[in-house]
Amino acid sequence: MLMRKVPGFVPASPWGLRLPQKFLFLLFLSGLVTLCFGALFLLPHSSRLKRLFLAPRTQQPGLEVVAEIAGHIPAREQEPPPNPAPAVPAPGEDDPSSRASPRRRKGGLRRTRPTGPREEATAARGNGILASRPGDEGVPFRFDFNAFRSRLRHPVLGTRADESQEPQSRVRAQREKIKEMMQFAWQSYKRYAMGKNELRPLTKDGYEGNMFGGLSGATVIDSLDTLYLMELKEEFQEAKAWVEESFHLNVSGEASLFEVNIRYIGGLLSAFYLTGEEVFRIKAIRLGEKLLPAFNTPTGIPKGVVSFKSGNWGWATAGSSSILAEFGSLHLEFLHLTELSGNQVFAEKVRNIRKVLRKIEKPFGLYPNFLSPVSGNWVQHHVSVGGLGDSFYEYLIKSWLMSGKTDTEAKNMYYEALEAIETYLLNVSPGGLTYIAEWRGGILDHKMGHLACFSGGMIALGAEDAKEEKRAHYRELAAQITKTCHESYARSDTKLGPEAFWFNSGREAVATQLSESYYILRPEVVESYMYLWRQTHDPIYREWGWEVVLALEKYCRTEAGFSGIQDVYSSTPNHDNKQQSFFLAETLKYLYLLFSEDDLLSLEDWVFNTEAHPLPVNHSDSSGRAWGRH
Ligand code: DMJ
């Protein structure tokens, strides 16, 4: 029915309301709507509802999908982001004097020097550390070190014969020589660079670099377990005393998450598991807490750089993509941080990384090297088992082994990835050398980096748990790759290998330009010799290892420590003036193990992190804090 408009007449509504009543009704209705809408903010966090009503202004494509996959709430929706500060603030942490504005280093990361007294008081509290799970505040946490040690299958240092009775065998003399090299490297560092990150043997001073956000003493931390297992007791005590008295965590620079994790966290964890000294456990956990802001990204995939300055989120500070080898090489250490602290947050962070990687589509089953921590998409299709990719694959097989063979997800991911690598990257040169090439969106670079030479050892390590029909094949593949890497050494004048070597234009296993001809005391080739030795006991690996020892002595030893060289094809190479901390952590350790009995750090009990720091295999009933079901 059509209503005719009559001035002064307001028709009644269908409910018979007049104007004042209608006004009051509308007022009531709008109040009700406001109340309901406001209540959304009082409910427990519900990103779905908020997403429904409050669409983010600048949503990244794919972000929600990845966040769903990851079970992770995008950082933009977090109000506010969880506090990344340590559960128990270390004394001095809040000292305003420790927040001096950092100097910007040319082209590099920011770093500052520590300024005040540190977390010594924390260490002095004894063997209790407060767990920081919600609801656990104030509950002292204790790790049962004796129970852990009783579960090991072998004595940590092996069951050696009484050396006074042991005849002067060649292998013993070789081992002693390597021990002497370690002693020399340590003493040179101590004399000229104690407390600095690394020694510069030519200028006889120390070097801090820009990777560690102001943390010092990388060489001390990296050396602890090597000194311990070589029974360099006095030197170990010197290193330990430095950690107790001078290793300060109140720094506020920008650090590489990966490097701090593998060197400092890895080194401290190993030192704790080898000795039971609380100072190492507590400092590892404190430092682990300082790394957590790096994970505050929309996907939970951490950025490569973490800012130690409070309130400055790692993901917002630099660059746009994260590197596979970096965010993929946290798993071992972070599970042990949970194991030793009772704080689940560490394990949750790396489980989330696994979850994202598990779900994301892989081109031909391969894992590209760069991933956006914002969108969760691959950034470009470059695949490498050398730099940028390497230790991601290593950590898959080692996660399986470290879990006491319960982490079947890691195992499956490892063997699937290895199949894809074999299918698309593996090649045999005309001269019969097996190598793993690099892949750029389907096009192969026929080169192998020195870093990729760890893969011989990795494939050997994983061979025994492969499907039965593949085991012998993987053992052989590991031996062939290791042989190729040996060739890269044997074909140089110094008998040390270049940074990268090629297979093209009739040249095989040699660098093709000066910029790839340097050797910086890297461990990957001797690392593979060590694993192959333990698997086969073929004397060739000790022979090859000894060639490296002789070459190091001849070309890298200087008056004040060991140095890298700039050209392995020159018989009078220039030194690069750097004794890398990984030389003490890895190269000398793997050489020493190569000339030792198999039960010195038995592979039944230990896995080595990618900086060669031994972390124990979980021999418990798998119900421990860090070893959730997979
Ligand atoms: C070490 O820091 C580690 O082995 C890392 O995984 C790769 N690079 C160096 C040694 O070359």
The Rg value, from CA coordinates, equals: 28 Å
- Write down the overall mean pLDDT: 82
What is the strand tally? Answer: 21
Q: What's the story with the biggest beta sheet? A: 3 strands, antiparallel
Terminal CA distance: 69 Å
Give the CA-based shape.
Answer: globular
Number of helix segments?
21
Ligand inventory reads: 1-deoxymannojirimycin
Taking pLDDT < 50 over at least 5 consecutive residues as the criterion, the unreliable ranges are 1-16, 36-139, 314-318
**Sequence of strands across the biggest β-sheet:** 7-8-9
Structural class: mainly alpha
Helix content: 40-55%
Percentage of residues in strands: 5-15%
Task: Describe this protein with a few key phrases.
630 residues, mainly alpha, 21 helices, 43% helix, 9% strand, disordered N terminus, binds 1-deoxymannojirimycin
Characterization of the model:
The model is unreliable at 1-16, 36-139 and 314-318 (pLDDT under 50). It is built from 21 helices and 21 strands. Helix content is 43%, strand content 9%. The relative contact order is 0.11. The radius of gyration is 28 Å and the shape is globular. With 630 residues, it is mainly alpha-helical. The longest helix is centred in the N-terminal third of the chain and has 24 residues, at 170-193. The strands form nine sheets. Strands 7-8-9 form a three-stranded antiparallel β-sheet. The termini are far apart. β13 and β14 (443-445) form a beta hairpin. α7 (218-229) packs antiparallel against α8. 1-deoxymannojirimycin (DMJ) binds at residues 391, 451, 522-523, 582, 586, 610-611.
